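Q: I'm writing up a methods section and want to include an example of the input and output format. Could you take the sequence below and give the corresponding predicted structure tokens, formatted cleanly so I can copy it straight into the document?
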Amino acid sequence: MRELSVYYCPKCGYYGYYQLPKNAVCPKCNVDMVHLSMSYQEFMNLTCEERDDLLSRQIIASSSPYIQRLMAPHKANNSRELVAVMSTRIADLEAENKKLNETVEWMHQTIWDLIHKNKKLQQNFTEPSEKQD
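A: Here is the clean output for your methods example:
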């Protein structure tokens, strides 16, 4: 039995797993898909983001020189994607910081409550002995 191979569409980036190359036809574009020179298991070990990056690079590398020229400024000045990634990271860190601050406030309040209870217990423990004298 043949192993599964990874194929991708050079037009839209759709990918699939096929045993036979004749079955590798993009269901969206109806064009023959290209074999990815990576084993099925290696591809499965990648995260979704790594898969998307790999397929994007494959499509750009196999595209015409015209498309590569169009993509050159994007590669050189890719600040929009960097800003988007950093904005997402900042939002995640702010959410984490808020959660940690709430935890610290809760712990601080709990400690003060325990200190006040401890003082009351000490006062209640010492007061009866003073009354006996």
